[in-house]
Write a structure and sequence with these properties.
The chain is α/β, with parallel strands linked by helices and 174 residues long. Helices cover 14% and strands 22% of the residues.
Length: 174
């Protein structure tokens, strides 16, 4: 079954997405329920998909492409495995139990927000996983643009090449 417009089932204390339409012509919001799984979620969503503020432990059954925002923040996720691969606007995975950003979408059209997870070095995870976005929210109050991330990548590369011979400039280690 298909819905040509928005399908919002948020704030309904749902425990399952059984009987949801298979294709959504606009946005699909199932946030603020009691979901532990995305089984039966639509396989195609033209615009945004919000599954935040549930009790999800995995992103199994997610569509591969999201034409708008993908919000999976404030769940119990320990991995981004099965996360959509393409997100046209913003991606929020904040407030979960993620320890790395493996399986994160590699290309996000706008913002990539991952603060509030027990990731040891979020910036390194973004660099190692080659995640591209216009800006990044990596911790409370810390935002970076793509240009700033590129500068940080170069700085870290120089530091790695110099190793123990890193040069110290007053107030900053290069």
């Amino acid at each position: 079954e298909s819905v040509s417009k928005k399908f919002w089932c948020h704030n309904n204390e749902l425990t399952s997405l059984k009987h949801c339409p298979g294709n959504i012509g606009h946005s699909f919001l199932c946030n603020r329920n009691h979901l532990t799984s995305l089984e039966y979620c639509p396989s195609a969503i033209v615009d945004s998909f919000w599954c935040s503020d549930n009790n999800l432990t995995s992103l199994d059954h997610c569509p591969k492409t999201i034409g708008g925002d993908f919000c999976c923040h404030n769940n119990q996720l320990t991995s981004l495995k099965c996360c959509p691969e393409i997100i046209s606007r913003s991606f929020w995975c904040s407030g979960n139990k993620l320890t790395d950003l493996a399986h994160a979408p590699r290309n996000v059209g706008e913002s990539f927000a991952c603060e509030g997870n027990p990731i040891e070095d979020t910036l390194s995870e973004i660099i190692v996983n080659n995640i591209i976005a216009k800006n990044y929210q990596i911790s409370e109050g810390t935002r970076l643009t793509l240009a700033e991330l590129e500068i940080e990548k170069r700085r870290r590369n120089i530091q790695r090449q110099l190793g123990p011979f890193a040069i110290t400039v007053p107030g900053r280690k290069i």
